[in-house]
Amino acid sequence: MPVIAVLLMVGCGQQxxxxxxxxESQSAKKLLQGAWLEEDTETFVFRMKGDSIxxxxxxxxxxxxxxxxxTLYIGSSVRYYIEKQTEHVLWFKxxxxxTMKFYKNTEQPDDSIAAQLPNKPQILTLTEVLKRDTVVFYxxxxxxxYVAVNPTKYKVSKHTLNEDGLDVENVxxxxxxxxxxxxxxxxxxxxxxxxxxxERIVPKNILPQTILNDMQYSKTDAKGFHFxxxxxxxxxxxxxxxxxxxxxxxxxxxxxxxx
Length: 259
Known about the structure:
By secondary structure, the protein is mainly beta. The protein has 3 helices and 17 strands. The chain has helices spanning 3-22, 26-32, 110-115; strands at 34-38, 44-49, 52-55, 63-68, 71-74, 78-85, 89-93, 99-104, 124-125, 130-138, 141-161, 167-183, 186-193, 211-221, 224-232, 239-246, 252-258. The strands form 3 sheets. Strands 1-2-3-4-5-6-7-8 form an 8-stranded antiparallel β-barrel. Strands 9, 10, 11, 12 and 13 form a 5-stranded mixed sheet that branches. Strand 4 (63-68) and strand 5 (71-74) form a beta hairpin. The radius of gyration is 27 Å and the shape is elongated. The chain starts with a helix and ends with a strand.
């Protein structure tokens, strides 16, 4: 056989080997089908059906999963090293390095477990509809400031560790904030603020993770009407506080106060 042909066969064999190493293990996926309980507490944690994992709590989104080699992949980026897997036992390493131990439900019918799952995961709203009316007197003029925080159907997703140590995705509704300013019956300013308005203030990699949380009146001076506006990552301590200034002429300016 020519040397070139041998080299091609060896090269193809090595490439095929590499591809096969990356192929999904259907046998491992088959073993994972069913409902799994935490070993120590014996509480139902998740159910795997087909290509998806469904969580017991009502706020975590289902996610796709697969097994490649000795690694369990959930969603697009989360991975867990599998320490032990049999038909009824699953051990894997959490994101913190802790060994998490589960066993498969064999006492209740799978349909019974499925009935415990929420029909549709709940999308969270951090702010209810909120309306504020403020009357301001400045330079012998009377101004009426109207702020309305309105939840939308725009979704913001956040990954977090649940109480079982699993990385889960929660989804929240973003807000639009409306601001109107009147002098007597004359409207000086009217605008709907979306978080994209603050893209020059909040870093581009952070802004999609935030919710436009609130806008509160601060003061009035020669520059105009000052409002403190917060953009926060859901359920976290990270917030950007931005001052929005609306001049008497209706022009706006912004500056970062803190984060």
